[in-house]
Write a structure and sequence with these properties.
Radius of gyration: 20 Å
Number of helices: 16
CATH architecture: Alpha-Beta Barrel
Distance between the termini: 43 Å
Number of domains: 1
CATH superfamily: Metal-dependent hydrolases
Helix content: 40-55%
Shape: globular
Length: 370
């Protein structure tokens, strides 16, 4: 194969993270192994010793839910993109390669319901699939309750069901719903319910409001490249502007992809926060930057920026599987933590495991069985 064809193939794998990538190791496995990002073959008899990481950013589109959604006319299986073609064997394989003990599952595609009744039925299918996974693979999976902020009554029911009966460890929520971002007063009931539970909210971006789903804002540039980071940043700034964490002090918020652009524009918010309504003062910006949590999925922006902005104890290990291929996880995300001189060994242990256990005590029940 020519060098140009190799380059195209490599680039396509990194961007698409397709199904084939789920069972392929990093191109230079010996180099990745030296970094500690690929499971060494001589530890096959000691899985527990090798698997130590907690992945807080693992997407799941449960096959049982796909079956149900297709019957309901909510999707067509043949049109699903790679990130919605999840299966447990590929997931466990990638987890083993990356040294992941437990993955926190974020249910995807939960914004397609037409009615509250359909949403409740769909969530019932999701919850059954997730609890089956945790029982069939003890210690390997924990899960988040998906919040449907456009169906508030269903969300209240889902929180009670997921936390009180099924053992969910947190909540997944989009950065915005129909252009209304987290922090907006219309979500206060939901946030108050989470605050009562000292809940952990994992937010996630999608296409920017006002754009058709999947249509690039800039031709030739996939929306996940830039728009997703902006979606997260908008949500974070709005949470700061509306003093959400002051109003709900027991609530914790995890920003994916190292906080989007937030760490990089912190000084800009300091300088121009007075133009917001109500104004954001610099002290509040600095306070909130140290109150958010950030995951490494994406891959991680320069660690020195994030450590200086938030502190290493606010960083959590996340992979973004299967949106991110195994090649990205072992070749980029892992080395971003493992080889970056901004982190000490103690800080790496925190990022890989200890920070997540401190933030989400319910994870201890799952991890104790690994």
């Amino acid at each position: 194969m020519s060098n140009s064809r190799q380059s195209v193939s490599r680039r396509s794998l990194l961007i698409a993270g397709g199904a084939a990538a789920s069972v392929v190791a990093a191109p230079d496995e010996s180099r990745a192994l030296a970094r500690g990002t690929v499971r060494p073959t001589d530890t096959a008899g000691d899985d527990a010793a090798w698997r130590t990481k907690i992945d807080v950013h693992h997407h799941v589109t449960a096959p049982a839910w796909v079956d149900w959604a297709e019957r309901e006319g909510l999707l067509r299986r043949q049109e699903l993109l790679w990130w919605a073609r999840w299966d447990v064997d590929s997931a466990l394989d990638v987890m083993d390669r990356a040294g992941i003990a437990t993955a926190v599952l974020h249910p995807t595609m939960q914004d397609r319901y037409r009615t509250p009744a359909q949403a409740k039925e769909g969530l019932t299918v999701v919850f059954q699939a997730l609890t089956d996974l945790t029982h069939e693979h003890p210690g390997r999976f924990a899960f988040l309750c998906p919040a449907l902020l456009d169906h508030p009554e269903v969300t209240t029911w889902a929180l009670r069901r997921a936390f009180d009966d099924l053992g969910a460890v947190g909540v997944s929520v989009k950065a915005n719903y129909n252009g209304v971002y987290l922090g907006d007063p219309s979500y206060d009931r939901f946030l108050a319910e989470l605050d009562e539970r000292s809940g952990v909210l994992f937010t996630h971006p999608l296409d920017l409001p006002g754009r058709p789903p999947g249509v690039p804002t800039v031709a030739g540039i996939p929306n996940f490249m830039c728009d997703f980071a902006l979606d997260t940043t908008r949500a974070a700034v709005n949470l700061i502007r509306t003093r959400t964490l002051d109003r709900y002090p027991r609530l914790s918020v995890v920003l994916p992809h190292a906080g989007g652009f937030l760490p990089h524009i912190a000084t800009r918010i300091d300088a121009f926060g007075g133009f917001c309504v109500p104004p954001i003062d610099a002290a509040r910006v600095r306070d909130y930057l140290h109150r958010f949590y950030y995951d490494t999925a994406g891959p991680l922006s320069p660690a020195c920026t994030l450590v200086a902005t938030a502190g290493a104890d606010r960083i959590l290990y996340g992979t973004d599987w299967p949106a991110a291929s195994v090649d990205i996880i072992t070749g980029f995300t892992g080395p971003a933590v493992e080889a970056d001189h901004a982190f000490t060994d103690h800080q790496r242990r925190g990022i890989y495991r200890d920070n997540a256990l401190r933030l989400v005590p319910a994870l201890k029940r799952a991890c104790d069985t690994t």
